Each structure stands twice: as structure tokens, then as C-alpha cells.
Amino acid sequence: MTVQSRTDTADTARQNVPLVLARGITKSFNGTSVLHGIDLDVDRGETVCLIGPSGSGKSTFLRCLNLLERPDDGLVLLDGAPIGYTQTDGALVEARGRALASQRQEIGMVFQQFNLFPHMTARENIVEAPVRVRRVGRSEADARAEQLMRRVGLEDKLDAYPESLSGGQQQRVAIARALAMRPALMLFDEPTSALDPEMVQEVLEVIRGLAEDGMTLIIVTHEIQFARDVADRIIFMDAGRIVEQGRPGEILKNPQNDRTRAFLSKVA
Ligand code: ADP
Ligand code: MG
Fold first, then answer.
1. How far does residue 109's CA lie from ligand 2's centre (Å)?
2. Looking at the CA of 113, which ligand is closest?
């Protein structure tokens, strides 16, 4: 994608914007192509579940959406604004440092490994970024942390350290921490894959609550039952491409593509 076509994409999109508009997202590692030009639109309030075999590029795609990886080509617009670029005199210039960090704060991400800061309590984990990055006042950040811990069902664990929490509790704190930045979009990368089975549901319930509250979510998951219940749309990815997408009922009951069918017969 040329700078001009990136700029044109940005200009067109702003007129009638889905919250997320990704075009031609392409990524290689060491000469091996991992994403072959992915297009994706996600509406405000939509819940999209991304499924597909291991190694198909799901994590890389999520990481490209929030610029943890910079795509080799393509563009992501969040609410019409190009992520990873600033616009100067109509041209897009790669954002770095603070400008990039500030754009990335619009997108919350929760990983498979609940990577809380081990030397901080749940409360400190949650208030850290708002206070340090957003310059939110400490008492406001504290009040928000308390509200978020209630939301994830852990209001009694505000002053607990991660090591004293179960995996499911740590992951719920990680969700609260991401929400503390008031992101416009939340990305989840296999949020329950590292959990003991008995803790999977408590985390899925929190995510379901976010979907019901109208947050915009993109969730990579192997929990097909969950995807069926919460997703507005399921996307099947294989070998760096979107192979098939649609409403859960369509994709899961009546997959059109052989690769989707083969994948579903293994996981369902
Ligand atoms: P998925 O999340 O669907 O399992 P990934 O996006 O993690 O797939 O990986 C897609 C492919 O890209 C895999 O072959 C993986 O080995 C490769 N890959 C991912 N990240 C890197 C990296 N940082 N360096 C080299 N190869 C990578
Ligand atoms: Mg992955």
C-alpha cells in the first residue's frame, strides 16, 4: 500500500466509519508470509470471535491491530484515525514514541498469560497506567479501580497480590486493568487457554458481560460454545487469510469451506 493509498483509505473511511477498519494487513517474519492482506471491519458494539488452527496468524493479526507488530503493508483505522500514523499536511507519517503510545491506549489487550505486575496489588496494577500515562488523579483512579474490580467480581481482592490469586482471578484483574484506560476496543488473545478448566467460565462470564454492555470486542478463542453464544460474527482464519465469516449459526452449523469444516470437526 502506498502512502497515497493509505491516505485515501483514511480519508474515505472517516466519512462513514466502522470502529475498526483494517485493510490489506500483511506481515512476514524472516521472509515467511504470515498474513496475506487481511481486511476487516468491526462495528461499534460488535463482538467478533476469531477462530482457526494454531499458527494461522490470529495472534499476529491482533498484534497488528494495536501495533504491537507493525504490519509490512496495510492500514488500520480506529474510529477513522490511522493507527500508527499521524497526519501531516494530508500525508501519513509513522507515529513513534508518545504519539504511538497514546494511540495504542485506545485499544485494550488481554493475553493468554495474565501478565500482571507481580510486585503490585490488584489495585496498583489497575491504577498504574491511568495515573502514569493518562495523568488521572489518584483518588479518581482508585474509585475507578474499585468499580472495575466490582465489575469483574473481585471487589474483595483489591489489595491482593497476583501470587495470592487464582489464574482466573488474575485474568479478571488483567481485564479490569485493560478497561481502566477506557479503551474504545478490547482485544482478547485466547484469554482462557492458560486457565485450569474450572476457571474458564468465570473469565468468559466477565467477557460476556462486556459484550452485553455494548463494548466492541475481538476475541481469539477456542471456546466454540462461547463464541456461538456471544459473537455477532465468527471469523475463521487459516494460513494467514480470512477463509470464511458470518453469523455463528451460519458458520458453525453450515460452514461453506472445507477447511472450516475440518477445523470445526476437530474442536467442536
Ligand atoms: P496463531 O495465533 O493463529 O496460532 P500466530 O500469529 O502466533 O498464529 O503465528 C503465525 C505464524 O507466525 C506462525 O508460524 C508463527 O511461528 C509465526 N510467528 C509469529 N510471531 C513471530 C515472530 N515474532 N517471529 C517469527 N515468527 C513468528
Ligand atoms: Mg495465537
1. 13
2. 2
List the shell of residues around ion ligand 2, using CB closer than 5 Å. Answer: 59
Q: 224-259: buried (b, 16+ CB within 10 Å) or exposed (e) per residue?
A: bebbbebbebbbbbbebbbbbbbebeebbeebeeeb
CA–centroid distance, residue 267 to ligand 2 (Å): 15
- Most informative mutation of 51, 60, 72, 242 for ligand 1 (most atoms within 8 A of CB): 60
Cα(80)–Cα(177) distance, integer angstroms: 25
Tens-level pLDDT at each residue, the chain (268 residues):
776 676 766 665 555 689 999 999 999 999 999 999 999 999 999 999 999 999 999 999 999 999 999 999 999 999 999 999 988 888 888 998 888 888 888 999 999 987 899 999 999 999 999 999 889 999 999 999 999 999 999 999 999 999 999 999 999 999 999 999 999 999 999 999 999 999 999 999 999 999 999 999 999 999 999 999 999 999 999 999 999 999 999 999 999 999 999 999 998 7
Report which protein residue has its CA nearest ligand 1's atom 27. Answer: 29
Tell which residue, 103, 101, 64, has the closest CA to residue 82. Answer: 103
CA of 189 to the centre of ligand 1 (A): 13
What residues form DSSP beta bridges with 92?
A: 87
Q: Whose CA is nearest to atom 12 of ligand 1?
A: 34
Q: Which helix (H) or strand (E) holds 163?
A: none
**In ligand 1, which atom is closest to the CA atom of 63?**
6
The DSSP letter of residue 105 is T
